[in-house]
Amino acid sequence: MKITIEKRNNKEGDKQSIRLIYWHGSYTDKDGKLKHNRKREQLDQYLYTTPKTKHEKQHNKETMQLVEQIKAKRIAEAASGQHGFTDTNKLSTNFYSFFNKIMETKKTNESNKNYDLWQAVLIQLKRYHPDEGLTFEQVTVEWLEGVRKYFDSQAKTKSGNLISSGTASSYFNKVRAVINEAYAKEIITKNPLKQVKGITPISSERVFLTIDEVRALVKTDCRYDVLKNAFLFSCLTGLRWSDINKLDWSEISEFNGVNRITFNQKKTGNLQYLDLPPQAYSLLNAFEKKGRVFQSLKYSAYMNIELLRWTMSAGISKHVTFHAGRHTFAVSLITQGVEIYTISKLMGHTEVKTTQIYADIIDKVRKDAMYKIPDIGL
Description:
Strand content: 5-15%
Structural class: alpha+beta
Strand order of the largest sheet: 1-2-3
Low-confidence stretches: 82-87
Order of helices and strands: EEEHHHHHHHHHEEEHHHHHH
Radius of gyration: 31 Å
Helix content: 40-55%
Number of domains: 3
Mean pLDDT: 85
Largest sheet: 3 strands, antiparallel
CATH topology of the largest domain: hpI Integrase, Chain A
Distance between the termini: 77 Å
């Protein structure tokens, strides 16, 4: 924090009032302009604008000496935590350096997925506030509100699309974690998060296919066989695009007469295994059995377009993405009465409540459940 002395002329112009200006941080407004946070203290002192007599000159000299003493006292008070500020040395701590220290703790031997997420947050933060000299003195309620708004409505992906509300919520939570840690370490004495709401993610519709729709896809030609096989494989195993894309024959082995995949999930880094039913295994190119299983599978615009064309040709009007295969797997098992905990393990969810979302979208299951109530003789 910085304290300066400000002099203001009165209406007549013969005298100047004096006040102290407390400068404590800055923020970027909605127009992208840098704004400073200031607090003013009016002092009961005045100066002669143009001192002429010896008396007036002496008055100005003594008044300025007194004002400088008051300023020095206020600086000492601010350094000791009064006025809502903390030690000026702590406040000058670089926000991005502190963020990096916390981010480095997210590296693990098993997976860097969480670390990668923190890196993505840092990239977005620097797009919002490019100045590498950002300090905690500048991290105010207004600054955080600006970050929140940026994540919620302006931040974009590499492809130029706005990030989802779920991603925005996750990103802002990382910033909140940094602020809370700074508060715990007494870098700041007041937590600005008390006045800033988090971002509530909007639940998006989970598109899934019925078994009849999957059967229709099996009978319909797709321009890229590898795409067709990979998507159907996702429908039968629940694997994500990232795990199917990197699936290697070294991760597939025979166990008790069953073909099994043993792999680390790319998203979570957790070790998982899945026993492959024969129809799922039949989708694999088992001639060479080395290297990537789906060798020519690539994430590209033409693959996404072909996925939509293929599903439309099969008479499916839904907006199908590759992730719909994973949703289809979960919904199919729930429809068949498989217990939710088992499905959660098969999908590699860390919490059952994540899997529970799928149960909420199956109207048929909910309807059938109501008809299982025993007859009470009415």
